[in-house]
Design a protein that fits this description.
By secondary structure, the chain is α/β, with parallel strands linked by helices. It has one domain: Rossmann fold (3-Layer(aba) Sandwich), CATH 3.40.50. Helix content is 29%, strand content 22%. The chain contains six helices and ten strands, in the order E-E-H-E-H-E-H-E-H-E-H-E-E-H-E-E. The chain has a seven-stranded mixed β-sheet with strand order 4-3-2-5-6-7-8, with helices on one face. The protein has a three-stranded antiparallel β-sheet with strand order 1-9-10. Strand 2, helix 1 and strand 3 form a beta-alpha-beta unit. Helix 1 packs parallel to helix 6.
Length: 237
């Protein structure tokens, strides 16, 4: 039995307050934008309390500024030891009293002490259908491998890169003539839908982790008939 059994992320929505999010970014922040847009809905059960970037030129910082969200830059380059960078991140997150940390294109590997400290409160979005294509350049590797379906995954962060209980996934077909860029765009569109959905499920207290697997209470699961096939069954001669 996992020590996480029956644990769930504490949901502030059980009271009246919204779940407090921190979003960690390194780049353009389109996933951050999707979360900002979702949080703008009055009935969305979370709000972004803090955006942290590990570099000052992260484009997503401007998105946060535009939305009036508190931002903080903690430059990894200012630290010689990864542990010190992680410690500084933790201190900022503790100070902001956040409930859930969303990695959104955050390009630093977080050490085991950090991951353990924030266990069950740390999630990531990865542009592949985990456990396939962990790491970088997922779309190029998917094209190279000739897979016909790709997608994205929202997961709790485990102690290793791109591992941890899977919360949500979305898939798209690889089309003839697809390039790394066209595939990235099509998957990114799904990321922008999936990340706010996963955060909402967590904030509403519907997500629990048992034996390293996620259970979701009261959500609409796909039906047996909901099959993504590539090629389509109708193209059979
Ligand atoms: C996304 O594809 C995300 O899955 C990956 O990094 C990319 C970040 O894009 N982890 P953006 O900064 O959210 O636009």
């Amino acid at each position: 039995m996992s020590k996480r059994e029956n644990d769930s992320v504490p949901s502030r929505t059980e009271g009246s307050a919204k779940m407090q999010l921190a979003v960690l970014i390194s780049g353009g922040g389109t996933n951050l934008q999707a979360l900002i847009d979702a949080c703008a809905a009055p009935d969305y059960p979370a709000r972004i309390a803090l955006v942290i970037a590990n570099k000052e030129d992260a484009g997503g910082l401007e998105r946060a500024r535009q939305a009036g969200i508190r931002i903080q830059t903690i430059r990894h380059k200012d630290f010689t030891e990864r542990a010190d960078f992680d410690h500084s991140l933790s201190a900022a997150l503790e100070k902001a009293d956040v409930d859930l940390i969303c990695l959104a294109g955050f390009m630093r590997v977080l050490g085991a002490p950090f991951v353990t400290r924030w266990e069950d409160k740390l999630i990531n979005i990865h542009p592949a259908l985990l456990p396939a294509f962990k790491g970088l350049h997922t779309h190029a590797r998917a094209l190279e491998a000739g897979v016909r379906i790709v997608g994205c995954t929202v997961h709790y962060v485990g102690i290793d890169v791109d591992v941890g209980p899977i919360i949500a996934q979305a898939a798209v077909a690889v089309l003839p003539g697809d390039t790394e860029e066209s595939l990235a765009q099509r998957v990114l569109k799904q990321e922008h839908r999936l990340y706010p959905l996963a955060v909402e499920l967590i904030a509403r207290g519907q997500v629990t982790v048992s034996d390293g697997r996620v259970e979701i209470a009261g959500s609409d699961s796909s039906s047996e008939e909901a099959v993504l096939s590539n090629p389509l069954p109708s193209s059979r001669k």
